[in-house]
Each structure stands twice: as C-alpha cells, then as structure tokens.
Amino acid sequence: MQYTDILRFARDAATAYPLRTLLSVLAMAIGVASVVLLTALGDGARRYVVGQFSSLGSNLVIVLPGRSATGGFNPANGITTTPRDLTVDDAAALLRAPAVQRVAPLAVGTSEISAGGRVREVVAAGSTASFMAIRNFQLAQGRFLPEDDWRSSAPVAVIGMTIRNDIFGNQPAVGQLIRLGDRRVRVIGVLKSTGQGVGMNTDELVIVPVALAQALFNSNTLFRIMIQARGREQIEAAKAQATAIIKARHGGEEDVTVITQDAVLATFDKLLGALTAAVAGIAAISLLVAGVLVMNVMLVAVTQRKAEIGLIKALGARGSTIRQIFLTEAAMLSLAGAVTGYLLGQLGALILRQLFPVFPAYAPGWAVAAALMTALVTGLLFGILPARRAAQLDPVDALMRH
Amino acid sequence: MTLIALAAIERVFHLGETDVHALARIDLTIAAGEYVAVVGPSGSGKSTLLNLLGLLDQPTAGTYHLEGRDVTTLSPDEQAAVRSRRIGFVFQSFHLVPRLTAAENIALPMMLDGVPVVVREQRVRQALRDFGLDQRANHRPDELSGGQRQRVAIARATIMQPALLLADEPTGNLDRATGEEVVHLLEALNAQGMTLIVVTHDAALAARAGRQIMMEDGRVKSDVSHAASTTLTSV
Ligand SMILES: Nc1ncnc2c1ncn2[C@@H]1O[C@H](COP(=O)(O)OP(=O)(O)OP(=O)(O)O)[C@@H](O)[C@H]1O
Ligand SMILES: [Mg+2]
Fold it and tell me: What is the reported pTM?
C-alpha cells in the first residue's frame, strides 16, 4: 500500500467518527496547551527577574572601598584604621586584568543644576564612556560621554529624562548649556526613561566625565569602580584579578570589597529555570493521560471497525499494512491534538502578555519542542497496542460476527 | 487443469471440553473454470470450507494445493498476497466500507496492493461500466440498493482478476429478482474463465451450477457434475 493511500485512508477513517476523533484530539490539545502555557508562565517569571537584574548590566563586578565586615581577620587591618581611597588610577589599572572587558570609575555626589531660571538639586555621577555599556543605558536623544582621556574634564553632561523634563519642558535639551555647581556644561545626551527598577533611578541622574565630577566635588576618591567581565564564566576570574591588582596598588593591603551581581542573578535564574522544568514535567503528565485516551479511542476503533479489518484482510492486506493504517491514524490524532494544543497554548500566552505587558510570557523553545515530541511519541506508543490487535484479528471471526 | 486440490483436510474447533469437527477428512479437486455449488444443511461446514479455500482460515490437518502450490505452508504475508491476487470474495452481507464511495470500495484491493492511482482509476471506470454502476460511482453504500451493493462487492472481488471467486450465500440478502441478476453476473464471470464456487441454500440456484457438492457433518456427502447443465447466460 502506498504511503499517500495509507494517509488518506487513515484520515477518512478518523473523520468518519467525528466525536471519537474530537475527544482524543482535545485531550492531546489540552496536554500540549498546558505545557506551552505553564512553561510560558514559568519562563516568563524567570525572564522577568533576570531582566530586572540585567538592566543593571550583565557580568558585573563592583569594587567598593573598605573591607566588608565578613572579610575575616587581616593583620593589616590592625595597623591602618582607615582604608585607602579608590582612585581613577586604581580603575585604570584594572583594565590590565585579562578577565576584564570594561571598567568605569564612578564618583557620585549631589550638586545643583540650573538653566533658564530653574534650579534643582541633583545626584551627579562622574564616569566614562564605558559606563553606558556596563550599565546597559539607552539614550533617548544625543550621545553619551565621549571616549576621552579619563583625566579630561570636558564640560559635557548626559541627563536623565525627569531632569530633562523639569528643566527644559518642551524645549530641546541637547546642545543647551546648563550650570552644574560652579561649572557651565553642555547637555549632549538624554537617557531613555527606565522607570523605577532595581537599583538607582537614572531618570534623576546627571552624568558627567569623572574628572569633572571630582573637580565639582573637590575630591579624588571614587564611590565605586564598575567592571564588566568578558563573559559569565569570567566573572570569578575578574573578581580575583581585580582584588589582586588593587591589593598590590594599596601596598599589599586588601582594603576593598569586590562583589558580583551575577552570583545572585545566576541563583535566581537556576531556581526559576528548575521551577519551569518542574511545571513542564507536571503538565507532561497530562500528555501521558492524553496518550492513554488515544489508546482507548483506538482500541474502540478496532472493535468498531472489526468487520472492516476482516474485510481488508480478506482483500489481501498484510498484517503490517493494517498496523500501519492504525498507527497512522493514532499519529494523526496526536499530531492534530499537538498542533491544536500548540496554537491554543500560544494564544493563551499571547493573551497573558496582552493583560500583563511587563511579564514576558513566552514558552521556551525546548518546552514547545518537548511537548510536541511527547505528544507524538505517546500517541504512537499508545497506538501500537491497538494497531497490533487490529493486525492480529482473525478475519473469519471479524467478518462473520458482523 | 487442477486449480484446487484438498487432501485429508480437517478443521476442528475447540469449544471448551468438546471438539467440533467442522470439516472431517475432505478430499476434493476442482478444475480451473468450474462452476461449483456447495449445498447442505446449516452447520454442515460449507462456510468453513469456503474460508479455508479463501485462505482466511487454516486447516487443522491436511494439505491444500492452489494452482499446484502448497498454500498451507505459506507465511501469513504470502497468504495475503495470494488472497490479494488470486482470490475474490463475495459475502452475503456485502461488507462494503460505509465511508467509502462505490468507486473507492471497488478500488480497495488495488489500493491495498499498491497499484498506481492512474491504473486504478482506469480499471475502476471500466468495472463501473461493466457492472452497470456508472451513475453510482460517487455514492456511498447507504445510498445504494441491495442489488447495487452486491454488484459493487462483485466488482471489488474481481477487480484484481482473480483465478478463484468465492461467494458465500451471495443472494441471501436479496429478493428473488435482484438475486437472479447477481447470479447472472457471477455466471458471466465464470463464462469468462473464472472458477466460481457458490455456497447456497437455494436449490434452484444450486441446480444452475455445473457441479453440486453436498455437505453433511463436515463431510462431502455427494459430488455430482452435469456437464450439460452449464449454461452460458449473459447479463
Ligand atoms: N469459530 C467457530 N468456533 C466454533 N465452532 C465453529 C466456528 N465456526 C464454525 N463452527 C462450527 O463448525 C460447524 C460448521 O460451521 P459452518 O459455519 O461452516 O456451517 P455452514 O454450513 O456454513 O452453516 P450455515 O448454512 O448455517 O451457514 C458448525 O457446527 C459451527 O457451529
Ligand atoms: Mg455458512
């Protein structure tokens, strides 16, 4: 028997009993849809948390001045009571570390901003061009700090969206001169609004070159040094290298704290990933149930179509042909169910995303693939028994009992 | 030429404690092109004999040669191939597939045998014409009369041009006139050279055959041939 004929024969047989077919397709569809939808929920939660954290920048390592209390006993601590300050030179030295991709020194202080008669207090951050890449800033207008020598104090500033609206209202901001403390600086860019996320609110920030900030605050110290490692697996190396370099520069004294944000992130990522997998597993049980239902439906089909099976045996069908016909029918039911379920699940995820736009409810590719595969495999597996039963029917019995 | 040779064929059904000898030591030869009627009381083993001849059932003992070949020792797949190419069945209750049209029912044996669609369509068209079913090609069995259904079944049984046509009470579900029509069709096929074996309760129908085999308790009670009575009736 030709494959196209088997397909057509199985399709016609399935559609000849619409209720039975509908039931098993529905069961399979519910199974697949629940896998798609539940993993979309689980993975959405994971993405949401990871997204919130990585808006702070990815592969981030942060150097803070001073030892953390948990650092353990160090004899050097007994001698020098005040830790050394972090300087721009310290930051520049970290660029030598092989695991480090980018470094941005960060000096932070408050200042006063005025333009066109309006005055307000702001948090000013002094940094370098790399700050944007490390922190994943997006620009709404203009450009970020220039790739200058870190010692250059070019009179330029990048401002947050709230400040831009407060100071300039509807007027264009980029290119305007403002007064920041006792300096006149030109606005060269505006940061895209991010709203209140995890970490500091960039909408209310003014970013200037680090040398300018230090001059404004009249201090040589840094608030912290931001480091971006070359990759996720390089984070620990970057941390160790940064610690070693600063220690060497500070006369062998380990007077800084180096933290990695990705350690926290990775934990969340793993936890929520495992949760999604567990949810997918539970949903997959419904696929198994659907497989059992398909088997039952096919067993009923074999009983119902006993005479037909006897007949095609009498007409010269081989046992393998009959097996193929029934397996194909089971596969069709499963496939139809899987596709319907996939579409239903994606529709459900779409509705979720419409209702909660911040929640990225996308079913992960692996879950969708696994659900479709499981549906097909269970359908086929549970189709084997009915197909064998059909092929083993005694034709005389099948024909005469009718 | 001998088409069928049965030697010491037995068929025993085990029903709990008791053994039912549906066929007991049957020896029988049937030549190619014969027209045989199998008669006998109910339960005498007529259907069992026909099922054995059609390779739908296996004998408990004995050998069956079809066209000179021992078919009792063939594998199930080889037997299926013989059923497909050499044997045609006509049943009392037609056994048409309800969801398939007349044309599709007729094409079924060719489809199962993997005959290409073009050949199938052409042969089905010819068969529909031969059996007066041109207008019914796309009708489903429930839209056909009993006589039309049996004609579809006969067209299906003969579409592979088998050597042997087996009919178990082919007129049993039909009224007299329609039954006669069907018998004429079968006889016409026999006239073209197809060996025809008909199981029947109808004495008048049995009398038309060139050879009558009377069964009783699983044995051949009498086996009469009258060469003269073989009539060439055309439809
Ligand atoms: N599957 C079976 N299991 C047990 N006994 C059977 C089976 N098939 C047939 N028999 C027995 O074998 C004997 C012959 O049956 P068979 O069907 O061949 O009779 P028949 O001559 O065709 O009768 P009828 O004219 O009523 O169709 C009967 O006694 C019947 O009960
Ligand atoms: Mg009978």
Answer: 0.70
